[in-house]
Amino acid sequence: MIRRHFGTLAIALALPLAFTAAAQAQSYPAKPVRMVVPFPPGGGTDILARLVAQKLTEANHWTVVPDNRAGAGGTIGIAEAARAAPTGYDIVMGQKDNMVVAPWLYKNLSYNPVKDLTAVAHVAYTPVVIVTQANSKFKTLNDVVTAARAAPDTITYGSPGNGTTIHLAGEIFNGAAKIKMRHVPYKGSNAAMMDVLAGNVDLMVSSVPSALAQIKAGKLRPLAVTSARRSTSLPDTPTVAELGYKGFDVSTWYGLFVPAGTPKDIVATLNAQVNKLLATPEMKAAIIAQGAEPESMTPEQFGALLKTDYEKWKGIVQASGATIE
Length: 325
What we know:
single chain; ten-stranded mixed sheet; 19% strand; 12 helices
């Protein structure tokens, strides 16, 4: 009898909690949602984040506010998001750089991406492109390799920062081509872009979204993309693999994450709305126009990708010998 009363009491107590969770999901969002962008305005991450924020706002009458929190290869913004309350009102646009590469580069990161964040929605992936100033002496990637072999450590390449996939794409290419180019890290893509346009650095290794406008304007010359297949936005630009470096494949992905512990119903709501956007011709065209390739996933699929890449890039980073204090 006593057990039956306790069981009845437990059910009675659980029912309000269940109804509260359901009501919370149905009313979500009841206030503005902050989207942390862990890089400065103007770069590939910022462009995609603002596009998603804008379209979520337009389609659902939500208020999604981008908030740039740049620095340390994108890790400052990710750390801030990981510390936020798990209520669904703080989301972050993460990418391979700060989610699966940085943890193996930085010795004292305050977050573990697999444990402290929950994957919500994959948005897009993009090749990395190697570019130079339009009037540069380097007409092809082979020109760069020839010059770097003749004068090691004199050819410079900029990137959005230490510890990014883009930075390591340059280091991996150094190894594949058996050359030594000098890496020049910047705080975001825009700063690196300005210096390659001004001729202060020889090359830039960039996400396609960050470089596409300047390529289309004729101010930058794309030499190669680092993905396994050519970019939809740059169909005439060869892959590094096509140029003789078989198996070369470095690309990056972008997606939304929330602090671990965020209610599953809210995660499901966010995922459904982002995937609905990605299925529209307008959104697909907008992402492709920025040089990225749209691709939707369930939270489970995106979480599995995060874990797989997290382990994969441990070996890549260790083999490169790169570390950041």
